[in-house]
Amino acid sequence: MSYLFKGLCHIGVMTDNAEESVKFYCEKLGFRPWYAGKMGPMPLTFVEGGGLVIEFIAAGKAAPGGAVDHFAIEVLNIEEAVADLKEKGVEVGPIMAIPAFFPTGMKNVFFTGPNGEKIEFVEYAK
């Protein structure tokens, strides 16, 4: 497996008020604003602290507040990682290339773990 895990990429948390969430994490816990963008119509806001990145998914009042939506693992070669998962019988969504997300762009893919947990692999563009 040469796609290698680099480590935890981020944890996605549903929120009905991203601004309030960012304020709490930054002012109370010492995180710092890291990135903000949109995935389609969905606003996403990221904070970082001590190498941990938390993504706030602003889903409005429909959001199950505080629910962990997914966790993301950074990999070095997403195509190889997906091929390996498929070879092992894991159903994997399509790899999405998002060139205008994060400072350099990224590729990501989602799949489901054995307990229904959503897992995301992320490869940052170089």
How would you summarize this macromolecular structure in one to three sentences?
The protein is α+β, with helices and mostly antiparallel strands and 126 residues long.
Characterization of the model:
It is built from two helices and eight strands. The protein is an alpha+beta fold and 126 residues long. It is globular and about 45 Å long.
Keywords for this entry:
single chain, 126 residues, alpha+beta, 8 strands, globular, 8-stranded mixed sheet
What average pLDDT do the residues reach? 86
DSSP strand content = over 45%
Number of strands: 8
Structural class: alpha+beta
Shape: globular
> Given the structure, what is the number of helices?
2
Strand order of the largest sheet: 2-3-4-1-5-8-7-6
Low-confidence stretches: none
Helical proportion? 10-25%
What is the distance, rounded to the nearest whole angstrom, between the alpha carbons of the first and last residues? 21 Å
Let me know the largest β-sheet. Answer: 8 strands, mixed
Q: Tell me the Rg in angstroms.
A: 15 Å
The run of helices and strands is EHEEEEHEEE
